[in-house]
Amino acid sequence: MRLSFQLFLICFLFCGMDRFVAAEVLEQTNGTVLQGTLLQIDQNQFQFQTETAIHTVPAAEVIRVTLGKPQANSPRGGLVILANDDRIHAEILYSEEESILVRLNSCPEVDKWKIPLETIQAVFFQWPAFQKSQVQLIRKIAQLKKKSDLFYLKNGDFLEGEFLGFDARTFRFDSNAGETAVPRSGIAYFCFNPELINFPQPNELRYRIELTDGTRLSVSSLVLNKSMIAAKTLFGAELKCKLDQVVSITPLGGLVVPLAQLEPSEYQFTPYFNQQWGWRRNRNVVAGPLRVGDREYATGLGVHSAAELHYALDGKYKAFQTEVGIDDSTNGNGNVDVSVLVDQRVVYQQTVRGTKQMSATTVPRIDLSGARELVLKVEFGKNADIQDLVDWCRPVLILKK
Fold first, then answer.
1. Range of the domain at 159
2. How many CB atoms lie within 10 A of CB 42?
3. Where is the Glycosyl hydrolase family 98 putative carbohydrate-binding module domain (predicted)?
4. Which of 345, 352, 344, 347 is nearest to 393 (CA)?
5. What is the pairing mode between strands 216-225 and 170-175?
6. How does 153-190 read in b/e, with b if 16+ C-beta sit within 10 Å?
7. CB within 8 A of 372, min separation 6: which ones?
8. Is 188 a domain residue?
């Protein structure tokens, strides 16, 4: 009996230790990284326990909190993509009074959400399970130029017009032929006229949370108490779920400035032959999601060799952080030399190769004290420019206090 108890105690201690080592991570703007357990979020303060102490950190001084859970690669059900690129995996129910009603896949106990039409970019009744199909659809949505609502049929055709509404059986829209009703079962997805979208983003402190089903939401308020999250979305819906369903929490509007939200002062591109490439914000250079090492990133910059992005700093920032890698869409190809320059001085240089399942390279934190200019540079590698799709993942500037 005593031996059994001792074995149980040893197992408990080691299991507890493993849990602690593999626990949550909180990254601070001062460069400190805490490992331990997220205890509470209240009044824009994070309470975080490490092995030695309980730390209280203002949300404005947090880069992100990761909770050690994997991303969902094949979420089921429907998907709503908002104008700010938030993604809501949900059962698509019906439309009502200039809104679409949905029920969250990850939190079915939460009341139905009413999402205003003016905040929505696209709605998919059934999001595909295969990653390649997902990427193709994300690219298609990003490249749309039509100035009307578009309705895509399951047979591959599409129709243009003005969205009127849908229920469980029927989908209605207005077109040159007049008001039209078709079976909802024949509609794969639909997109709204980008000129009519209106979803301004606040400057105040807010949060982006990622759930285990792939949902990515911006919320204006966030409270964690007794392992339960309570939040309010930017379109007014209430979210309540267990912390176990959260992958990461990223404060926005504090001391952290995502580089992707700034306009570069200069962009230079040198073609290997004749093809010209631009750069993309929060997408890879071919308009797909930023994905490196089978991990998708919400923010970043997509470029192609050989390219330079220049940013004016004006001495406002104290540090820069980023990850960098070859996008997964290259299937393990691509080879480039990347470098970071501060005031024309190379402070980081690395060869980056496309390798299947290889995670993005973490660039050491770069001091920007007094700096006037930041340059992200990508040069040709050993394979000319073949498959040189480079993602700068989660690049952030840290403001001075």
1. 78-196
2. 11
3. 256-399
4. 352
5. unpaired
6. eeeeeebebebebbeeeebbbeeeeeeeeeebeebbbb
7. 312, 313, 314, 315, 343
8. yes
Paired tokens of 71: 């991303």
Structural domains of the chain, count: 3
What CATH code is carried by the domain that includes residue 121? 2.30.30
Amino acid sitting at position 268: Q
Quick: pLDDT tens for 6-40.
444 344 343 433 333 347 999 999 999 999 999 99
Q: How many residues does the chain have?
A: 401
Final residue of a structural domain among 181, 196, 211: 196
The reply to whether 366 and 263 lie within a common domain is yes
Contact present, 401 and 369 (Cβ < 8 Å): no
Partners of 366 in the β-ladder: 320
- Residue 74 CB neighbour total at 10 angstroms: 11
**192 in Cβ contact with 147 (< 8 Å):** no
The answer to whether 51 and 36 are in contact (CB under 8 A) is yes
307 and 367 share one domain: yes
Q: Which position has the token pair 């080691």?
A: 14
Q: Is residue 8 part of a domain?
A: no
Confidence bin at 146 (pLDDT 50/70/90): confident
In the chain, % of residues over pLDDT 70: 94
Find the range with the poorest average confidence among 64-68, 107-111, 310-314, 378-382. Answer: 107-111
Q: Which of 320, 281, 323, 328 has its CA nearest to residue 302?
A: 281
CA distances from 221 to 107, 214, 360 (A): 18, 20, 31
- Geometric angle at alpha carbon 396, from 322 and 375, rounded to 5°: 70
Give CA separation, 4 vs 8, 10, 11, 16, 49, in Å: 6, 10, 11, 18, 31
- Number of neighbours of residue 322 by Cβ within 10 angstroms: 24
Same-domain status, 263 and 394: yes
Tokens 């001091």 belong to: 367
CATH code for the domain in which residue 24 is found? 2.30.30.100
- 230-240 pLDDT, tens per residue? 999 999 999 99
Tell me how crowded residue 333 is: count the other CB atoms within 10 A of its CB. Answer: 16
CA neighbor of 337 nearest in space, from 326, 351, 327, 325: 351
Count other C-beta atoms under 10 Å from residue 130's C-beta.
10
- Strand partners for 249: 65, 209
Q: What is d(CA 129, CA 110) in angstroms, rounded to the nearest whole number?
A: 24
